[in-house]
Specification:
The structure is a single chain. The protein has helices at 4-9, 14-20, 30-33, 74-87, 105-114, 130-138, 153-160, 165-178, 197-207, 223-230, 234-250, 266-276, 282-292, 332-336, 342-347, 356-360, 364-367, 372-379; strands spanning 2-3, 42-46, 92-95, 119-123, 143-147, 183-189, 211-216, 257-261, 302-305, 310-312, 325-326. With 396 residues, it is an alpha/beta fold. Strands 1-8-7-6-5-4-3-2-9-10-11 form an eleven-stranded mixed sheet.
């Protein structure tokens, strides 16, 4: 992810709170884990394929009847959590489908808490009533990301294929803010909603939501069917980045954090703006990017486990040819630290495999080659150039 607010102001809000807050002795800060030999990724765990919505752009094609393969049982889930706790991973993200649809979610989340894991929740928000928000906070879940794909009821409900979902998601955010549960708005941008992003940021401010996260459309799951006709053109992407940059400068970083996901090359746009405007943060921004590695982290600092326990480099890489292993057959810690795994080895040395414009780009070390899934879908080769990157522009 590209933390635009951090790059512009040299600070952060939610990210800073999660990374640097005081933690109990049994929890190891993530910034210390980075210097150990064992790789400890942030794990995105799709605990279910089931969902009470049927979103047009869902990256795993979730729905009420969409369960593919057996979900990990509660016993298997606990064994998986035991392994993650022993690894001391920095964060476990519960996602889906809709995690709250799974009947034993509360038992799973509570077990993770008892094992000392730092957790977060990715949700569509429709089930987060005031009581549910209190239960989430009671389980020490540190952050709740709520999907909101438009500033209007019509736009969001069309994306989500369910009338009334916009009102429920907005209410979920209010419920979280009211009790001091850190939350954020996540929006996947397409041609159908990019014109509402400014209003959506303003809505975030109005609601008191401290994080605004833009996801660019990735051709995965049902999103693959939308990609050809709904993906933004380079000039439209530039308009959104310009907006996000201006909004990040406009608002106090203590009030809202603005960031993007799934396009590491966004950092180059922000750096170019900082340099062009003579910002004193330009040099610091480069150092921050080099230090934090805010580029494509798939297969290295980011891991994904699907409902059936299959392990992938990231949540958008759920393809059979990119599957690394299965936690039912082998511990996640063993899978992730297998130096002989060819997929992991390739993803951890992305820049040596890049082809096309990405292969010769002078800035590939900063963005780590962009999104490999877009390249795979576009060209049939995960190491081809990222078609979403403008590439031919003088960025710095």
């Amino acid at each position: 992810m590209i933390r635009i607010t951090q790059l512009v102001h040299g600070t952060g809000t939610v990210s800073k709170a999660i990374k640097h807050r005081k933690v109990p002795p049994h929890r190891v800060p993530s910034n210390m884990l980075a210097f150990t030999e064992t790789r400890r990724p942030l794990v995105f765990w799709n605990i279910t394929n089931k969902c009470n919505l049927s979103c047009a752009h869902c990256y795993i094609d979730a729905g009420l009847g969409a369960q593919r393969g057996d979900e990990l049982t509660l016993k298997e889930a606990k064994a998986f959590i035991d392994d993650l706790a022993d690894m001391q991973i920095p964060l476990l993200m519960f996602t889906g489908g809709e995690p709250l649809v799974r009947n034993d979610f509360w038992k799973i989340a509570n077990y993770a808490r008892l094992k000392g894991l730092k957790t977060a929740l990715s949700s569509n928000g429709t089930l987060i009533t005031k009581n549910v928000a209190k239960k989430i906070k009671g389980l020490e879940v540190e952050y709740v990301g709520v999907s909101l794909d438009g500033a209007s009821e019509k736009t969001h409900d069309t994306f989500r294929n369910q009338p009334g979902s916009f009102r429920k998601s907005v209410q979920a955010l209010k419920n979280c803010v009211e009790i001091g549960l850190k939350c954020g708005i996540r929006v996947t941008i397409t041609k159908d909603n990019y014109h509402e992003i400014s209003d959506l940021i303003d809505l975030s401010i109005q609601l008191g939501v401290p994080r605004f996260c833009v996801y660019w459309l990735v051709p995965s799951g049902r999103g693959r069917g939308l990609y050809a006709n709904k993906q933004l053109k380079h000039n439209e992407v530039a308009q959104i980045l310009d907006l996000l940059y201006r909004k990040a400068k406009e608002f106090d970083p203590e009030h809202i954090e603005i960031l993007t996901v799934d396009a590491p090359q966004d950092s180059l746009y922000i750096l170019n703006r900082l340099k062009t405007e003579g910002s004193p943060e330009y040099g610091n921004a480069i150092k921050l990017l080099e230090y934090t590695g805010d580029s494509c982290s798939a297969g290295d600092r980011i891991a994904n486990v699907d409902p059936a326990g299959n392990v992938y480099p990231c949540q958008f890489a759920q393809l059979e040819e990119l599957k690394i292993g299965n936690v039912r057959q082998r511990k996640f810690s063993e899978i992730w630290n297998d130096s002989k795994n060819p997929i992991l080895s390739a993803f951890r040395n992305k820049t040596t495999h890049l082809k096309g414009k990405c292969g010769v780009c002078a800035y590939k070390e900063l963005c780590n080659g962009g999104c490999r899934i877009r390249a795979y879908v576009e060209y049939g080769d995960p190491w081809a150039e990222d078609p979403f990157c403008p590439g031919n522009q003088e960025l710095m």
